[in-house]
Amino acid sequence: MSKLDVKYLGLDLASPVIAGSSGVTMSIDKVKTLVDSGVGAIVLKSVFEEEINRKAWAMESSAENCPEVDYIGAYIRSNSLDNYLEYIMKVKKTGIPVIASISCVSSKEWTSFTKLIKSAGADALELNMFFLPLNREQKGGKYESIYYDIANDVVSTVDIPVSVKIGPVFTNILNVVWEFYLRKIRGVVMFNRFYEPEIDINRLETVSGEIFSNPSDLRQALRWVAIVSAEIPQVEISASTGILNGPAAVKQLLAGATTVQMVSALYQNGPAYVATVNRFISEWMDKNGFASVSDFRGKLNYSKITSPELYERSQFMKYFSNRDE
Ligand SMILES: Cc1cc2nc3c(=O)[nH]c(=O)nc-3n(C[C@H](O)[C@H](O)[C@H](O)COP(=O)(O)O)c2cc1C
User: Fold this and answer.
1) Residue of the CA atom closest to atom 1 of ligand 1
2) Residue 186: CB within 6 Å of ligand 1?
3) SS3 content of the chain, % helix, strand, coil (to 5)
4) Which listed residue, of 110, 221, 226, 318, carries a Cα 20 to 30 Å from 301's Cα?
5) Is the shortest distance between the CB of 238 and ligand 1 below 6 Å?
């Protein structure tokens, strides 16, 4: 048994370092390198309901007068899903725990797909949920209830562990995680980092923002991992965003994360970088006298540190005002 072993979503992982949902995990060669480098688990890229529907609708509208129009839409849907299911089976053959990911808009379609994902051999399922609120009259709670309905339906459909990947923008993150827990969600991934628009002032155009994280992106999740792991220990946390190296991974584990997910760092340094991160964690543990990850996990969370206000502080107020003096 390696000292980096952890249990996450009931699965035995050789390391707390997970390759997060992205194109990196959709290449079998990269997956093999990740496995050889000691990755704990793989989260596959999300299947996007919206994307599949858009493809099916485009085909349906171009075949509007065709008597088989319904069949064409259904074929596109099932073909897209079949490719995903086949890929799950391929990755499973490497022996690594596989977490499938779906991005839901409605619960209806996804409960049947969830069953297929399970039968293809996925060990767990991550729900990538986000609805951009664009209706000024809709109260925030109404959007949240859509998340809870989807979680409810998916959890009651399959018996594999289900986690939810959330964004950082909620009025009360603790309540959101608690509501998921009440619906038997085993883990939360905090946080997803979404596509962001940028403006090019020379071309007077809206363009895509930087897609990779920078080191300071770690801190927003660090606060909430520390607080949620202390207040809702029943839910396992997989930290995500800004974990670009070994020290960042150790920080999230100290804050209370059970696992850490990496994406930008794997795009930028290649999948073998996981070995460097594992080595750093292992050497740091030796230096600090920790024999297993559970010996230090959460050691600096909200309930364990002597000054929890360090996690509560959000305004600079007087405390930092003498910086300029
Ligand atoms: C190119 C790219 C593709 C991604 N695709 C997905 C996806 O399909 N599903 C998902 O839940 N997150 C996706 N993400 C978000 C990542 O899983 C991760 O949450 C985010 O990049 C923050 O982690 P990082 O700082 O390690 O990059 C993607 C990120 C990138 C950069």
Assistant:
1) 22
2) no
3) 50, 15, 35
4) 318
5) no
Pull the structure tokens for residue 112: 């049947």
∠ at Cα 271 (270, 276), nearest 5°? 90
What residue type is assigned to position 304 of the chain? K
- Separation between Cα atoms, residue 209 and residue 220, nearest integer Å: 19
Angle at 215 (CA atoms; ends 211, 216), nearest 5 degrees: 100
For the Cβ of 193 lying below 6 angstroms from any atom of ligand 1, the answer is yes
* Minimum CA distance residue for ligand 1 atom 14: 22
Q: Whose CA is nearest to atom 23 of ligand 1?
A: 241
Q: How far is the CA of 211 from the centre of ligand 1 (A)?
A: 9
Best probe residue, ligand 1, of 192, 217, 218, 244 (max atoms within 8 Å of C-beta): 192
Q: Which CATH number fits domain 6-324: 3.40.440.10, 3.40.50.10190, 2.30.130.10, 3.20.20.70?
A: 3.20.20.70
Query: Whole-angstrom distance between the N-terminal and C-terminal Cα of the chain?
Result: 54
**Cβ density class 188-211: b for 16+ within 10 Å, e for less:** bbbbbbeeeeeeeeeeeeeeeeee
Q: Which two tokens stand for residue 176?
A: 């959101």
pTM for this entry: 0.91
- Average the pLDDT over each of 20-24, 68-72, 164-168 and give the range with the smallest value: 68-72
- Nearest 10 degrees: Cα torsion 144, 257, 229, 139: -10
The answer to whether the beta carbons of residues 43 and 11 sit under 8 Å apart is no
Residue nearest (by alpha carbon) to ligand 1 atom 25: 241
Q: Answer whether 252 contacts ligand 1 (Cβ < 6 A).
A: no
Domains in the chain: boundaries = 6-324
Instruction: Write the pLDDT tens digit of every residue in 81-114.
Output: 889 999 999 999 999 999 999 987 766 667 878 8
Q: What is the per-residue pLDDT for 81?
A: 84
